[in-house]
């Protein structure tokens, strides 16, 4: 208990005092980042350090949480640091890494980092690729798939090599179970029609318990946010410590109250010993049993590492190892612990707890199926696996990636159709109640994730209506420094249209300038000029005094704030010509475009601003598919065009 | 030979006389369809029928081609027919299916159909999902993933159930090999560092041979198109028949020249008999051998079903079964046959031939590795699998989906990192020479696929430059029927901007009208009016005399042509008000937007037309992420917003 407490305490201390952004799983924030929202501090170097050491404490401390979410966050942090050429604050930057210094490349790198995290956590490279594509990215390109795939392949090779070195057990738990963490390839091979009904039941249970889990965590997070965590860091640490003590007491105490069971008759073919030899991992744990040929079924899952507990729950050829009473006890206690632990200020993943909960009720259903259809070749472990899939499906609402991860961690491809079936049911049931865990948590944290589907009422709205009566703040092309400062202080818009006048006196929208770029300009003062006229040079190109890479917003550090800008009275009287620094062709939509279309544009292209403009008065030209096939226009004359597109 | 000839002849006859669009694999055309190009006839009901019966003939006739591509095409055809509510021509339409009648839903359904085809062909449901996402679709939404996943799950359950019924072999070859077609899960489990070098070599060979295959098929397709196939259907049929005769002669004749080898000592644990008992499938085929304890290694792969040949090549515990000479002979002959067969007028897939070619040189490399590193636990079958992956990677350039398919058809997850490695190398090597097989074939067929990455020179081009000096053909809002007819006849544009005048006399672009919609209007005549004035009704809404579902372009039938429209002289003097029928908010871009941006817009949203308009004179508003979170605006006041996006 004391060791657990010490570990958890160290984790909570690191998080509260050093890296507050490292609390929780980090997946909602990463999802938000890839959706276009920068949550403060989520990719800092200190967050990375806090996440690594914090999860060592929280996972090692035996809390009801997993290491998978934190590993995803860790991967994303590393990727982001590489993407901005190391961290400048700690003097770890490298010049050649600066090639990645663009927003888009960095987002791609972070996506790869997420995939690497999942691939490393589950030793599931394909699952990692799919997780990154299905769960975290918002827009998707084939090049990205190729890059993510490459990352995952490297992870797989490295993990395998490392496990080869650790073969003889000299690295502790690392590598236990081999490359396939919970191998059940020797389990059930076939299934009959009658089994589909109990499997569907597992799907329904998974959907219900998953949705309930999401709902309870919403309530508890809300309560923590509005009440408990407002009282300061000390309360946060005490809370975690109490949870740790309760977890230790329950994990150790409950199995003590459970009577030991005598071992089943040994089957020499299965290779499973009862009770397991001391110092080994496996089924049939002898936990303070009076007789040497007895084992404690509750201790086999409760007083154990999570990996080993799951392996025991998934195990085949161990029919009737667990009593219904023990499974039910464990389910209720662990479910409660998982709900209570969720949202405390330690790094915490929800994958492994989900698998634990799911496999418990799955095994419970499996027990009934085994006793009901006596003659069939049914393994309780198969049902445990399906249960795990169903709970994760019911809570996180992933489909393809979860399916592939489940197959990759258990190495039983023949169960794939069943996993798919169970996932479909549990996701559908869960969707009837609430949204997925990550979406709900993102919403609670105020991260405005754009869902993939526009809301129904957008169909009847136009772009103009969405802008509301919000006043547009313009900049002229050449603007006085004092005006810039005033405008930036008076609102918190992130982008401003820039207007110029033609010689005939008409106004013309010439682009969009970002707040962050204006701040860089104000801070450096290099581009201030005395004349209120545009600074056309004789050669026709505009002189740019700034190195353009300075404008790339550093995600992993805080960026410039308006309070960092210090200007003299002389500076305020000067002017800036914005033309070289603006985005000359922001995306525009006509005022009466349907909001559904605008939404799709926004999400598919990952935009942050769209300008709403009046209907055009004339059309200069039309671009069709053929106009975009530049290279082919020259040599395709000989090819007869069968397509009807023109 | 005669049976093969008869089967192939029937296939070629069906294709040339009944369903010409069913020739080849169909994947480039489907890819084009989902990219936004309708190739004529590709999704017709007769194409479906031709594809099914044609591939029975061509695959059954023993040609060097596979059934996987045709199955993908078949799936897409079925999906498209469901999507337009059955086929009207053959009176098989159903009213309730008409709910799918929108372009977008039909494209989604076709994507699902492709996934179902792959899932059924390889019994690889996850592979099917990934194939559809990686290879065929151009744009991608999470809802689509969920739907595709559902389709694949159903396919998996149905295939498994069907195989359960056929267990005792009463359905012939169907179900042979079980749900995992080429199970090698009892093969090599581990690999050492030294093996990575020969595996990398396999990757390089795969890239080279794959690129060569693509290049040779380009030449031969070009030659066929410009020379041979211009001579009519009879030449096409004769060509296929000659290929069939050659294939039969080589498959039967070459093994005859090969001396038989005496059987290796029997290993009772492996369960492999030598020679295999008559009427069974498996290794060690006795083919006209004088001694009963002998087998013919060339016949084991050449005079065999393709499925069984691949199983033999992948098989473990059969070291030195094949001589290098036989493997080399088979490789050269089969490679040549596959190149020659590609592009003949029969339905043909390239997956299985690719696996055959790849596994042959893979096994060849494996032979050398086995003799070089004598002490290691190396299986030649592992190298055969990697060879297959490398050739497919080098030719088709798929990554994630191919990887998952290879794992799903062999059930050996532990080889996944190796498959990934080999694929990465072979794809990289192949990319150095030419594009993927499907892209090259699409280009040859004049299907203007938009690649995922814009061309480099687009960076310095503007939208206006892409339009060139092409004249824009306008329609006024109310247009004379004679003018419509004249304009439609004088060009072959598919979309026309519509211009209206405001009361102050300014022109205004009010939308885009499609050629196909104009043709429907001309044919039905229901909306003709005598007055040249807009037909505003008193209630403010426009009276629509047409059922809007009439405008959905039927993909699976030919659609209306300008020649189908018959108008009297009276009709020509009447007017149409286009306002109710146009697309009121087509996507527009300012004239000086970078073409790279336009390209991304085009591809990500799957557009067919973009209007290029002058720069806007003013900005009505800005839409940011927050404006699109409609639902949350009301109840999110209590939530503190941590994000910096505003």
Automatic annotation (TrEMBL), chains A, B:
The chain crosses the membrane at residues 48-66, 144-163, 196-217, 327-345. Residues 1-23 form the signal peptide. The keyword Nucleus does not apply. Coiled coil: none annotated. Residues 461-528, 582-641 form the CBS domain. It comes from the Eukaryota. SMART domains: CBS (SM00116). It is a multi-pass membrane protein. It is found in: Membrane. GO terms for molecular function: voltage-gated chloride channel activity. One of its GO terms (cellular component) is chloride channel complex. The keyword Transport applies. Gene3D superfamilies: CBS-domain, Clc chloride channel. InterPro entries: CBS_dom, CBS_dom_sf, Cl-channel/antiporter, Cl-channel_core, Cl_channel_pln, ClC. Keywords: CBS domain, Chloride, Chloride channel, Ion channel, Ion transport, Membrane, Repeat, Signal, Transmembrane, Transmembrane helix, Transport, Voltage-gated channel. PANTHER family: CHLORIDE CHANNEL PROTEIN CLC FAMILY MEMBER, H(+)_CL(-) EXCHANGE TRANSPORTER 7. Belongs to the chloride channel (TC 2.A.49) family. This is Chloride channel protein. It comes from Olea europaea subsp. europaea.
């Amino acid at each position: 208990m004391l060791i657990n407490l010490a570990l958890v305490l160290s984790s909570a201390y690191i998080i509260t005092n050093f890296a507050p952004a490292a609390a929780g799983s980090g997946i909602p924030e990463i999802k938000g980042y890839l959706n276009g929202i920068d949550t403060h501090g989520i990719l800092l170097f200190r967050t990375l350090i806090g996440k690594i050491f914090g999860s060592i404490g929280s996972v090692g401390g035996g809390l009801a949480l997993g290491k998978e979410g934190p590993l995803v966050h860790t991967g994303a942090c590393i990727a982001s640091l590489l993407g901005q050429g190391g961290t400048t604050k700690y003097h770890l930057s490298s010049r050649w890494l600066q090639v990645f210094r663009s927003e888009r490349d960095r987002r791609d790198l972070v996506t790869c980092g997420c995939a690497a995290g999942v691939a490393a956590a589950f030793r599931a490279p394909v699952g990692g690729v799919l997780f990154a594509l299905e769960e975290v990215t918002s827009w998707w390109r084939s090049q990205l798939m190729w890059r993510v795939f490459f990352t995952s392949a490297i992870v797989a090779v490295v993990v395998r090599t490392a496990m080869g070195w650790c073969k003889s057990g000299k690295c502790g738990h690392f590598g236990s179970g081999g490359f396939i963490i919970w191998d059940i390839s020797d389990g059930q091979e076939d299934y009959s029609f009658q089994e589909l009904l109990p499997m569907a039941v597992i799907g329904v249970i998974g959907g219900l318990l998953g949705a309930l889990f999401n709902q309870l965590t919403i309530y508890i997070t809300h309560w923590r946010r509005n009440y408990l965590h407002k009282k300061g860091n000390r309360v946060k640490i005490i809370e975690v410590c109490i949870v740790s003590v309760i977890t230790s007491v329950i994990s150790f105490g409950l199995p003590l109250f459970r009577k030991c069971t005598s071992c089943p008759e040994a089957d020499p073919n299965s290779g499973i010993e009862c009770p397991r030899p001391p110092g080994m991992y496996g089924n049939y744990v002898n936990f303070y049993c009076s007789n040497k040929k007895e084992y404690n079924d509750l201790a086999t899952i409760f007083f154990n590492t999570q990996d080993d507990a799951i392996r025991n729950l998934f195990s085949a050829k161990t029919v009737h190892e667990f009593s219904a009473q023990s499974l039910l006890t464990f389910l209720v206690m662990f479910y409660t612990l998982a709900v209570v632990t969720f949202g405390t200020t330690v790094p915490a993943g929800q994958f492994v707890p989900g698998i634990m909960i799911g496999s418990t009720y799955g095994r419970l259903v499996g027990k009934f199926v085994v006793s009901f259809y006596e003659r069939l070749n049914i393994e309780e472990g198969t049902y445990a696996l399906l249960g795990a899939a169903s709970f994760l499906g019911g809570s996180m609402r992933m489909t393809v990636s979860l399916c592939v991860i489940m197959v990759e961690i258990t190495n039983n491809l023949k169960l794939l159709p069943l996993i798919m079936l169970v996932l479909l049911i549990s996701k559908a049931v869960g969707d009837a109640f609430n949204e997925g865990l990550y979406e709900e948590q993102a919403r609670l944290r105020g991260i405005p994730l754009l869902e993939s589907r526009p809301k129904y009422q957008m169909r009847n709205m136009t772009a103009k209506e969405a802008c509301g009566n919000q006043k547009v703040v313009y900049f002229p092309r050449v603007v006085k420094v004092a005006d810039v400062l005033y405008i930036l202080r008076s609102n918190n818009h992130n982008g401003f249209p820039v207007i110029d006048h033609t010689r005939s006196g008409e106004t013309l929208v010439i682009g969009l300038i970002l707040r962050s770029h204006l701040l860089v300009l104000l801070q450096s003062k290099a581009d201030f000029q005395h004349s209120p006229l545009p600074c056309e040079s004789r050669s026709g190109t505009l002189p740019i005094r700034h190195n353009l890479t300075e404008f790339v917003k550093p995600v992993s550090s805080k960026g410039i704030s308006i309070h960092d800008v210090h200007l003299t009275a002389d500076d305020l009287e000067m002017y800036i010509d914005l033309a070289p620094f603006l985005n000359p062709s922001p995306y525009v939509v006509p005022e009466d475009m349907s909001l559904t279309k605008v939404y799709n544009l926004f999400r598919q292209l990952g935009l942050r601003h769209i300008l709403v403009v009046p209907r055009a008065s004339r059309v200069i030209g039309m671009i069709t598919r053929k106009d975009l096939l530049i290279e082919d226009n020259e040599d395709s004359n000989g090819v007869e065009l069968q397509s009807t597109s023109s």
